[in-house]
Amino acid sequence: MKRVTGIGGIFFKARDPEAMCAWYKAHLGIDVLPWGGAVFNWSDDDGRPTGGSTVWSISASEGADDPAPFTINYRVADLDALLAVLREEGCQLVGEPQDGEYGKFGWVLDPEGNKVELWQPPPGQ
């Protein structure tokens, strides 16, 4: 069974998200869109699209539900199967998996207590 197939997104928090977005756009050339992030489309070595993407996004740290300064969202092929295997392996799952418009999400803690987000994209993505 495949486990992680890529990085679905990198989401981090900032005290001043607009200033952070402007800095990344000006100095690193990231095409930050009005919603506060960018999408990097995957391609092969020849530059041909391969059907996946990674989201990069900055949000406000103030008032956020999760105190962690960042979230790395790992793309998976079969969330339910992977969560079952992780449970069997003794990993600590967090909450109940969620299924919605953007796909399925599940969470597990790594050995240092970091919350790891697992994402199965909706069909066709």
* Global Rg: 16 Å
> How many distinct domains?
1
* Alpha-carbon distance between the two ends: 19 Å
Q: How are the strands ordered across the major sheet?
A: 2-3-1-4-7-6-5
Q: How helical, in percent, are the residues?
A: 10-25%
Number of strands: 7
Q: What's the CATH superfamily, by name?
A: 2,3-Dihydroxybiphenyl 1,2-Dioxygenase, domain 1
The overall pLDDT, averaged over residues, is: 91
Description:
This protein is α/β, with parallel strands linked by helices and 125 residues long. It has one domain (4-120): 2,3-Dihydroxybiphenyl 1,2-Dioxygenase, domain 1 (Roll), CATH 3.10.180.10. Helices cover 18% and strands 47% of the residues. The chain has two helices and seven strands; from the N terminus they run βαβββαβββ. It has helices at residues 17-28, 79-88; strands spanning 4-14, 37-43, 49-60, 70-76, 92-100, 103-109, 115-120. It has a seven-stranded mixed β-sheet. Strand 6 (103-109) and strand 7 form a beta hairpin. The relative contact order is 0.22.
